[in-house]
Design goal:
One of its GO terms (cellular component) is post-mRNA release spliceosomal complex. It contains nine helices and two strands. It is mainly alpha-helical.
């Protein structure tokens, strides 16, 4: 079927009438170009705010560091001044000055008292009680005995001093003593030598029947005593310490040379031998070497 030009035109007109004509509507939302422009305007403001806050934070931190450095410098200066004062102040000098001041005050008071015709010792004793005076007298007496006991007298006296020093250093073992005492009481009670009696107050009392519980001059029970391991170790340590002290003193006497020949019997003889060696060693060296090699015989 062949369509004419008029028919095609009429068909196009009908189609155009059927299609609705689109009217331009108002867009309420922002366009992409406008939104990008607004973002570009807000971003510099945010960057400026962040930069300002960081700058303030750095400034606060810097001020805190400055304050800390200032306080540390002040403390260092104070410590330096105190240390320099301690170094310039000699404790020995202070003690000497205080001792001289006390001695001068004592002499001044003594002179004034004697000038007034009074007894100095009696006047000074007014400030002390009887107990303090007795304690002071005992202290002075002990000090005098110790001063007299320092110098070497004989080997018996030296051994006595060592024994007393060891007794002062040895602490009593009260726990072991109570255990041994309780065991001895139980053995004596089992053998019938002791009688355990209870008093009205409920206290237990041990009564020695035949007087054999406590040791006398004829008792030999001490021979059965066996020291414990700790006591033996303590004795060994004391002996080792004494040996170390003896070796140290001998080394000091020899001038630190343990392998040197001992050609003296005491310190005075050693000094005399050294004096002889200064003058005659250059003549006797060859003879002594020959004796040591055995070629002199």
């Amino acid at each position: 079927m062949v369509r004419t030009r008029n028919a095609d035109k009429s068909a196009k007109d009908e189609a155009s009438q059927e299609q609705p004509i689109e009217q331009p509507t108002e867009n309420t939302s922002e366009s992409p170009v406008a939104s990008s422009e607004m973002k570009a305007e807000t971003q510099p403001d945010e960057i400026k705010d962040d930069g300002a806050s960081k700058a303030r934070e750095r400034m606060n931190r810097f001020k805190a560091l400055q304050a800390r450095a200032k306080s540390a410098t002040e403390r260092n200066l104070k410590e330096t001044a105190a240390e320099s004062q301690r170094l310039t102040t000699d404790p020995a000098l202070l003690n000497t000055l205080s001792r001289k001041h006390a001695f001068a005050s004592h002499n001044l008071l003594k002179a004034d008292t004697e000038a007034a015709g009074e007894d100095f010792e009696r006047k000074r004793a007014w400030d002390w009680t009887v107990d303090e005076s007795e304690k002071w007298d005992r202290r002075m007496e002990k000090k005098q005995r110790h001063r007299d006991d320092v110098a070497f007298q004989d080997y018996t006296q030296d051994a006595r001093k060592i024994y007393k020093r060891q007794l002062r250093e040895m602490a009593p073992n009260l726990e072991s003593y109570e255990k041994e005492k309780l065991a001895a009481i139980e053995r004596a009670a089992a053998n019938g030598d002791l009688e355990i009696v209870e008093t009205e107050d409920g206290e237990m009392i041990a009564i020695d029947k035949n007087g054999s519980f406590y040791s006398t001059a004829d008792s030999t029970g001490f021979t059965e005593s066996k020291p414990d391991r700790a006591a033996v170790d303590r004795l060994v340590n004391d002996i080792q310490k004494a040996e170390e002290v003896r070796l140290k003193k001998r080394k000091e006497r020899r001038g630190g040379d343990d392998d040197a020949d001992v050609t003296y019997i005491n310190e005075k003889n050693r000094q005399f031998n050294q004096k002889l060696a200064r003058f005659y060693n250059k003549y006797t060296t060859e003879i002594r070497d020959s004796f040591e090699r055995g070629t002199m015989i």
